[in-house]
Structures are given as C-alpha cells and as structure tokens.
Design brief:
This protein has helices at about 25-40, 65, 120-130, 145-150, 205-210, 215-220, 225-230; strands spanning about 50-55, 75-80, 85-90, 110, 130-140, 160, 185-190. The chain is about 25% helix and about 15% strand. The site of S-adenosylmethionine (SAM) has 23 residues, from loops.
Amino acid sequence: MKPAGHTAVMASRREPPDSLEFFPTPPWATRALMEHVFSHLGFSDDLQFSACWDPACGEGHMIEVLLEYFGGGGWGGDVFDYGSGYRVEDFLDERTVIGSPADGVRPEFIITNPPFRPAARFTLRAMELAPVVALLLRTQWLEGEDRYNTIFRDRPPTLYAPFVERVPMVKGRWDPKASTATAYAWFVWVRGRAPMAPFLIPPGRRKALTRSDDARRFEQIAPAPLLQAAE
Ligand SMILES: C[S@@+](CC[C@H](N)C(=O)[O-])C[C@H]1O[C@@H](n2cnc3c(N)ncnc32)[C@H](O)[C@@H]1O
C-alpha cells in the first residue's frame, strides 16, 4: 500500500498559515525512531506487517521515510492542502475517516510531529485510534501542570527517547545545514505495555542516517510566492 499521492515534496507547493506550525522533520530523525527507538522496543518484526499513518504529514518529510520501513505501507493526511497529493483532513475532527485510503485498513502505528499548541489533543486522539503512538516533540513538552494532569499522570509514555544531538527544524522547509538550541525527543506509547527507563538516542545519528538521495527527495527548491498570491 502506498500513500495517496505524492512524487516529490516540492511538487507544486502551497504555503500554509503560520498557525499550522509547519516544521518538516529531517529524514534522519525519523530513521532514528525506526532504527533505534523501535528496535529498543523490540518492534523489528512487527513492522513487516504493520501499517502507519502520519495524520499531520505536511509535505511528506516523515511519512515518506516511514514507508522505507513499514511492510504494511502507510499514508499521510494533513488539514492543509500542500499540493503534495496527501489526504486533506483535520485529525482532531471526529468525522475524519480513520482507515487507509486504499483499503480502509486501520493503522497499528500513528507517528507524527504534531503542531505544538494542540499536541495534547493530538496525543489523546492518537492513543484512542492506534495501539502504538510515536510523537516527536520538544523535550520541554514533559513540563507543565496541564499536560501532567491531562496526559502524563495517567498515561506515562512507554518510552521517552530524547536525542543526544540537536534536531534542527525550520519553518516551511528542511534545511540540512540548520542548527538549533531546542531539544527534541520521541515519546512512544504502546497500549498495554508498562513504562520503560528512558532511552537516549545516541549521538552521530544525523550523519549516519542521512542518505545520499535525501537532498533530492526532501529539500525544497524555492518558496512559491506566485501560488500564494494566486490563492
Ligand atoms: C510540525 S509539522 C509536521 C509535518 C510532518 N509530519 C513532518 O514531520 O515533516 C505539523 C503539521 O501539522 C499540520 N496540522 C496542524 N493542525 C492539524 C490538524 N488539526 N489536523 C491535521 N494536520 C494538522 C500542519 O499543517 C503541519 O503540516
């Protein structure tokens, strides 16, 4: 099963409003989930038969990397139409259809980099819909009384996996040369599994997990002011 649409992230770009917090994930940070965090959880074999969904997929920087690993395929959707061919839908809307666009199969894995402001609502909804949820979030997301009360007190993550190195994310594009002072972690919930000790994603992943064709697949050539003006 392939996702609904998409050939390259720069196909026919449209600029989203700032409020949607479009910060594409560097491909290597998604591979770190698959190759380090999921293997630490012992998932390697399950991935052969499972399907995944990125319900806030933007231009596909994360879902296209996930499809390198998930034998059961996967698909992406986003509330904004970036022009990349993914399903356009609001993950937080209860009327959104849950199954795959191809055959209605429900995902075993929901994996995304959710917008920061509604991330708690994303988390609770994702946990209702799939047995495994993996979210890439700032490490500071662990803090805060509201999140403690709504999420962490009763639903501690099965695995909290902070990156030892920084994961630079910039608005609207993947810039392989960017740097950042913000720290990120994968938060993973596995239904029915007790929390494990935190797992540190080892350094050197950016270099080791960046592939030679990532630039061709994921770097954006230029913004699209003409398209924006036309809308
Ligand atoms: C931080 S970006 C992540 C994009 C992509 N997952 C990646 O990692 O490259 C957050 C995305 O959430 C989308 N988004 C915001 N609110 C949404 C909603 N209610 N339902 C679905 N997508 C939403 C935005 O349009 C944006 O593409």
